[in-house]
Design a protein that fits this description.
This protein is of the alpha/beta class. 44% of the residues lie in helices and 14% in strands. It has a five-stranded parallel sheet with strand order 3-2-1-4-5, sandwiched between helices. The longest helix has 26 residues. It is elongated.
Length: 217
């Protein structure tokens, strides 16, 4: 062909069927690793020595029962329950936030309410609510002269994100622990087999990535 031709032959590499099969195999292996490791990663438990137990007010009744046992078995002296405005049912009962409702529920379970302090955030907060409650806890501890070391109790795979946001909210010398209560509504080892487990893990994975890489106080 002449030097001024408008087309030319060019050799190029392309993936064979074996290459495509190998890529599929790698994808399946990575998916399997994700499925087996993501729930234990999100449902983190790591405690510190403290007499203060912080309960996230949204947790369901079975988690409140577990929190009651944790309080007594750990010989804690103060239970702080965080509260946020309920997004459903707030017009139908006497409790304006989930923290007050959780405190009342614990009282009916026989828990001594003298040991409870409810700390609620502004009802107008619509985003970064976990961080806002962490800031509220920090401010109350400072005003009350309480130690800034505590363990946070939350539900299952919400734990990793709560731990991160409470650490972001507290001072550098603070001690934050986290306790993940197992969600009895699905099998944590086979979370992908139920809609509740699938939604919880995927939602918390995305939320954790946002809090870890894109959230700046």
């Amino acid at each position: 062909m002449g030097r001024f031709s408008i087309a030319r032959k060019k050799e190029r590499w392309t993936v064979t069927w074996l290459g495509h099969l190998l890529k599929l195999l790698v994808f399946i292996i990575l998916l399997f690793i994700f499925a087996k490791t993501i729930h234990p990663f999100l449902a983190k438990t790591k405690t510190v020595e403290s007499k203060i137990l912080v309960i996230e007010g949204f947790i369901p009744d079975f988690a409140l029962e577990a929190s009651k046992s944790i309080f007594y078995e750990g010989q804690y002296e103060l239970m702080i329950i965080t509260g946020k405005k309920k997004l459903k049912g707030s017009y139908l009962d006497e409790f304006e936030n989930d923290g007050l409702q959780s405190a009342a529920t614990l009282a009916l379970m026989g828990f001594d309410t003298v040991n409870i302090k409810v700390i609620a955030v502004d009802n107008d907060i619509r985003q970064d609510r976990t961080y806002a409650t962490a800031i509220a806890v920090k401010e109350w501890l400072q005003k009350s002269g309480k130690p800034n070391t505590f363990n946070v109790v939350t539900l299952s795979c919400h734990a990793r994100r709560s731990f991160l946001l409470f650490e972001k909210a507290m001072e550098e010398d603070a001690g934050v622990g986290i306790i993940a209560i197992e969600d009895i509504r699905y099998d944590p080892e086979k979370w992908w087999k139920s809609s509740m487990g699938f939604r919880s893990v995927i939602d918390e994975t995305v939320a954790y990535l946002y809090a870890r890489f894109f959230f700046y106080p």
